[in-house]
Amino acid sequence: MKLRIMIPTVALLFLVGCQNEPTTSQNETNSSTNSEVSSSTVEESQASSESSLSPEEVKEQEMLAELPDVSTKDWNLILVNNWNPIDETLEIPLEEVADQKEIDARIMEPYESWMNAASQSGYNIFLASSYRSVDRQRANYNNSIQQYINEGYSEEEATKMTEDYIAIPGGSEHHTGLAVDMIDSEWLNSGKGLVPEYDTQESQHWLVDTAADYGFILRFPKNKEEATGIQYESWHFRYVGVENAQFIKKYDLALEEYIELLEKAGKTEDQ
After folding, report:
1. Is residue 77 helix, strand or coil?
2. Which of 64, 81, 85 lies closest to 226 in space, CA to CA?
3. Do 181 and 219 meet the contact criterion of CB atoms below 8 Å apart?
4. Looking at the predicted structure, is the pLDDT value of residue 109 above 60?
5. 62-132+172-264 CATH choice from 3.30.1380.10, 2.60.120.260, 3.30.565.10, 3.40.50.720
6. Which segment, 6-15, 23-32, 108-117, is predicted with the most confidence on average?
7. What share of the chain is helix, strand, coil (3-state, %, to 5)?
8. Residue 38 has pLDDT above 60, yes or no
């Protein structure tokens, strides 16, 4: 009699256990499904967020992510223009490079390496201008205005025409010792000088193509006049260091735009 009672009990337990197994499996399936849905929702949210950005914003995010580990306080990233005059108490380690022309001693090696490479490539590059004091810039600025006045322009017109290409005293990059004006000697000997049309020459193309390899950029490129405040200058190069120069070249930036990007990224502290 006892045996008959035990068999149904065991069978009942077995059936209950069997019924519990699908429940556990179903819970695992639901959990997995919920996890997949959650992951999919996050991905869709990220995709939606990215798709809501304009092409300009997408590019800016890309640039911010690729910025080199530098700071706007680095000596080679000093920004001098008509809105940011140089601190005239700044001490610059000048060194003579040629014909009583001086540049910052810290860029002597990359500059000479660049010019040696130019010579080996068959280009004889003439250094037209380098470091310039504020007093000398003032003389250049005033002389330019007077020349235009002598040609019949009003003082207002003469000033505007001068400032298209000549920075106001204190606002010239040449005060930093990091800027160089360069043209091919053949171009100069043909009676031409520092004019935009210098970009028709192979030597200028070579300078633009190789500048970043030595830490230089074309400082006042085309279509950047609003950012720089200066018209296109095919002859004016500026040292910023290799990392910075390559980034600026890759993204076709003016120095002002690069500095603004560094500021947005918070790269403004002394290193």
Report:
1. helix
2. 81
3. no
4. yes
5. 3.30.1380.10
6. 108-117
7. 60, 15, 30
8. no
